[in-house]
């Protein structure tokens, strides 16, 4: 091994034919600890003054363990690592059910305005009138778009919004003295739906799907009864299909005194085209961070406001904003006169403060700059792009369900039968073609699923390049399975044992003895 190189490539397998391990101007970057030069530092600190030891014998006896590097070495190391990132600013994300779309930088600028970015939830209300007005206006937009009379802004994410809706449903039943125990959930639901229902204390029963990927209405009706509190449905569902029986579903659920919770994670496919209230829905969360412009992924930030029907509006959680005599204030207590005046019976609070305010700013900026027509066009374009992928790839891949689709196109691995290439192999090969893989093995109701969501922000030119790559790989799988087993070959690291990495992660670096 040439002097100065590390053992990483020996572990990963040869990644380059160059002596340095670099590929053109893409530098083979070692761990920062492997670049350590003992005694080297990027800063000069004055000697520590002589003071009495107050550490009670706990003073460190060994070195801190941080690597010694110069300032240029530190800057170059982290810059090189950043160049290995793949993000929406560098390429297309075909991930299904994730809505990884470009978000206008204008909304980022708005969220960083000092009057919004530098405020604190404990400030007196008279000093944050602009922030309260923004929340009030955001609520107005969300209610107008969905046709629902009430919205809770405080939920901090999609699953938190689900929890809000289900707590409101439980509160509504308890207020009537009706102790129901069962929540019905379709097989194709997001996994958080049954988890949320169980967390609230309900027993969850599954409803099967029809052969065309939608809720089996007859099976649902057979399962409904006086013990059912709610039916939770994702629409459009996780298979990328609109639940065309949603109005009949809502009527059947209401006939037994239960409520309809609709998962709004895929609201980007129908916003501006349908009023949620017209579907008979009682509660729906909206992922502001997906549909309305906040870059998301990696754990946050998120926001899941939940709109509520007339039947559930009295049970919306605290706090909420009201306008009185030209000023805005927060209603934070059940004994507040505003609660009694409106006949409200809040189930409590969802979190300590008032919601994810930075996401509110971005969302309202997005809505106001797009307008009603722009929001409708966004959903139209998302559906158009998904159906374009479906049409261009259906002859080489295997669609899981008949067209038309909504915001995402779902294929499965039947086209790989007898090729020796797995779904994972196919997705890894796509990385070598310069694309982040589509979602694999989800939804679970489809074996070997390949779920693609192009979003409204991708051009036809981008989609055509992606389609060309997918078609090429589908043809190649028939004759060259071995190359797929080695993919990806052109990345800074080759294929890892992801199962082992998840179960036995190495979280601490330690020096390795070269043999």
UniProtKB/TrEMBL annotation:
<dbReference type="GO" id="GO:0016594">
    <property type="term" value="F:glycine binding"/>
</dbReference>
<dbReference type="GO" id="GO:0005960">
    <property type="term" value="C:glycine cleavage complex"/>
</dbReference>
<dbReference type="InterPro" id="IPR015424">
    <property type="entry name" value="PyrdxlP-dep_Trfase"/>
</dbReference>
<feature type="domain" description="Glycine dehydrogenase C-terminal">
    <location>
        <begin position="378"/>
        <end position="478"/>
    </location>
</feature>
<keyword id="KW-0560">Oxidoreductase</keyword>
<dbReference type="Pfam" id="PF21478">
    <property type="entry name" value="GcvP2_C"/>
</dbReference>
<dbReference type="InterPro" id="IPR015422">
    <property type="entry name" value="PyrdxlP-dep_Trfase_small"/>
</dbReference>
<dbReference type="GO" id="GO:0019464">
    <property type="term" value="P:glycine decarboxylation via glycine cleavage system"/>
</dbReference>
<dbReference type="InterPro" id="IPR020581">
    <property type="entry name" value="GDC_P"/>
</dbReference>
<dbReference type="GO" id="GO:0004375">
    <property type="term" value="F:glycine dehydrogenase (decarboxylating) activity"/>
</dbReference>
<dbReference type="InterPro" id="IPR049316">
    <property type="entry name" value="GDC-P_C"/>
</dbReference>
<keyword id="KW-0663">Pyridoxal phosphate</keyword>
<dbReference type="GO" id="GO:0030170">
    <property type="term" value="F:pyridoxal phosphate binding"/>
</dbReference>
<comment type="function">
    <text>The glycine cleavage system catalyzes the degradation of glycine. The P protein binds the alpha-amino group of glycine through its pyridoxal phosphate cofactor; CO(2) is released and the remaining methylamine moiety is then transferred to the lipoamide cofactor of the H protein.</text>
</comment>
<dbReference type="InterPro" id="IPR015421">
    <property type="entry name" value="PyrdxlP-dep_Trfase_major"/>
</dbReference>
<protein>
    <recommendedName>
        <fullName>glycine dehydrogenase (aminomethyl-transferring)</fullName>
        <ecNumber>1.4.4.2</ecNumber>
    </recommendedName>
</protein>
<dbReference type="Pfam" id="PF00266">
    <property type="entry name" value="Aminotran_5"/>
</dbReference>
<dbReference type="InterPro" id="IPR000192">
    <property type="entry name" value="Aminotrans_V_dom"/>
</dbReference>
<dbReference type="GO" id="GO:0005829">
    <property type="term" value="C:cytosol"/>
</dbReference>
<feature type="domain" description="Aminotransferase class V">
    <location>
        <begin position="171"/>
        <end position="297"/>
    </location>
</feature>
